[in-house]
């Protein structure tokens, strides 16, 4: 395999020439830039114009209807900046009008200046950066733009991921690795290089380690970044070791080697594969960090909408109609109890994992071997409710065992288990359950409790129990 023995200097012309070559090659050889990204919110409301003849002058631009604008999107981590510093460079109600006419490039933090530099080097005149293109501390504008995130990244010509930047001030073009190599010659006369790659502490590093350099980087622990990455057609990852190009055809390294993609984009090729992909995304997303817990239901909404549209099905709060029953059978991961997120009352239903903080995992259920409850469905009139029958537990009790409660028969034999999302009541006779599916005389269940409204229940846990120990009690109730 042919590759560079030594990486180009961090800001050398050769490095930017490689970026332009990647884009041209992908445009000509792949279909990454030709897929159907149409949506009602395809273009951002505002873009940053970086093509002014005076490089120190930037301005905001508002695309017009049917405008065909090629732009770059920046995926980055804000970091812990003071509010005073944010107000120096963010777009606000106070400066939005002047920014439409022009403002100084020099007020931007280093990460943004690097993004402008890369955009210009790629020959593109427009750039999208959240804090510049969304009016900050304006709740109405934020809510409006948050619903458009799907279009922002799906319609971008390319995404720049500031992978190495811990915050907006850090920048991402410099590298923390050096190459030392010697030219050697084999007995056959063939010449080759032997290289040693080290970081700033002279420790050996693996130059082609996408998992360590990108997947484990702080940027990719952020919840918002997941949908930014999945929705993007092509992404250039600027790690602190080297650049990586990622598109639907794989991952390519700055030293010209090719890696197998960790995040394949072709995932709608059958029910089982799609279901597994949805579970993978949901579990991974639930473990990522958010500055505001209440963004949990928003930071993946664009990706959720894209998947639902591709499937031709409804989705509500991370639960897809095509896989409704399997999607409902989630549980908290690890030993720590979850807690309710402080949404306004009635915003997120209890049956959605988005209502709670912390990581989740789905029950491991064989595909194609479960009889699902066809009475369980989304409520057409009440978006937050599921319609279903519920039952009561019969001739059994429960006993705390590790993170779960064992369901015991009258002879203390184990007949199932329950894992609570939050708190357990300690008395199985006060609980109700929804049968989600049945396999080999065992029920997969949601544990629910009544609210103050008659015929209305909320989820409190999940479990499995032998069918002999549940009796159907009420029909067509609502789980909210």
UniProtKB/TrEMBL annotation:
From which domain of life does this come? Eukaryota
| Residue ranges occupied by any Heterokaryon incompatibility domain in the UniProt entry | 71-228
What protein name applies here? HET-domain-containing protein
What organism does the UniProt record list as the source? Zopfia rhizophila CBS 207.26
Supply the InterPro entries for this chain. Answer: HET
Q: What is the lineage of its organism?
A: Eukaryota, Fungi, Dikarya, Ascomycota, Pezizomycotina
């Amino acid at each position: 395999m042919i590759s560079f023995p030594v990486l180009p200097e961090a800001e050398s012309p050769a490095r930017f020439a490689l970026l332009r070559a990647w884009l041209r090659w992908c445009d000509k050889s792949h279909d990454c830039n030709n897929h159907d990204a149409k949506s009602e919110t395809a273009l951002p409301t505002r873009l940053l114009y970086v093509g002014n003849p005076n490089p120190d002058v930037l301005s905001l631009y508002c695309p017009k209807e049917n405008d065909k604008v090629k732009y770059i999107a920046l995926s980055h981590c804000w970091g812990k900046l003071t509010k005073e510093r944010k107000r120096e460079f963010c777009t606000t109600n106070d400066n939005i009008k002047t920014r439409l006419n022009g403002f100084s490039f020099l007020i931007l933090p280093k990460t943004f200046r690097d993004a402008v530099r890369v955009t210009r080097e790629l020959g593109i005149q427009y750039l999208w950066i959240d804090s510049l293109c969304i009016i900050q501390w304006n709740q109405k504008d934020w809510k409006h733009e948050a619903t458009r995130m799907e279009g922002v990244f799906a319609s971008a010509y390319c995404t720049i991921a500031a992978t190495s930047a811990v915050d907006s001030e850090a920048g991402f073009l410099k590298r923390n690795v050096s190459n030392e190599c010697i030219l050697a010659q084999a007995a056959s006369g063939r010449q080759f290089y032997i290289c040693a790659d080290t970081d700033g502490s002279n420790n050996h590093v693996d130059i082609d380690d996408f998992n360590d350099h990108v997947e484990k980087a702080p940027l990719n622990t952020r919840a918002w970044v997941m949908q930014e990455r999945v929705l993007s057609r092509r992404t250039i990852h600027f790690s602190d070791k080297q650049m990586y190009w990622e598109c639907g055809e794989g991952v390519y390294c700055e030293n010209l080697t090719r890696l197998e993609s960790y995040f394949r984009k072709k995932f709608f090729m059958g029910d089982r594969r799609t279901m597994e992909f949805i579970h993978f995304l949901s579990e991974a997303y639930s473990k990522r960090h958010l500055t505001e817990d209440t963004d949990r239901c928003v930071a993946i909404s664009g990706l959720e909408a894209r998947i639902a549209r591709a499937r031709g099905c409804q989705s509500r709060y991370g639960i897809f109609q095509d896989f409704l029953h399997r999607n409902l059978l989630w549980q908290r991961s690890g030993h720590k109890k979850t807690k309710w997120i402080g949404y306004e009352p009635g915003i997120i239903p209890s049956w959605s994992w988005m209502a709670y903080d912390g990581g989740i995992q789905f029950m491991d259920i064989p595909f194609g071997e479960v009889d699902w409850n066809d009475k369980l469905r989304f409520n057409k009139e009440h978006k937050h409710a599921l319609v279903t029958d519920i039952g009561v537990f019969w001739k059994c009790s429960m006993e705390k065992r590790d993170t779960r409660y064992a369901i015991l028969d009258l002879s203390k034999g184990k007949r199932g288990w329950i894992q609570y999302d939050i708190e357990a009541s300690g008395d199985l006779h006060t609980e109700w359950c929804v049968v989600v599916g049945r396999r080999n005389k065992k029920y997969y269940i949601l544990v629910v409790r009544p609210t103050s409204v008659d015929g209305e229940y909320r989820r409190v846990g999940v479990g499995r129990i032998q069918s002999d120990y549940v009796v159907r009690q009420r029909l067509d109730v609502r789980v909210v």
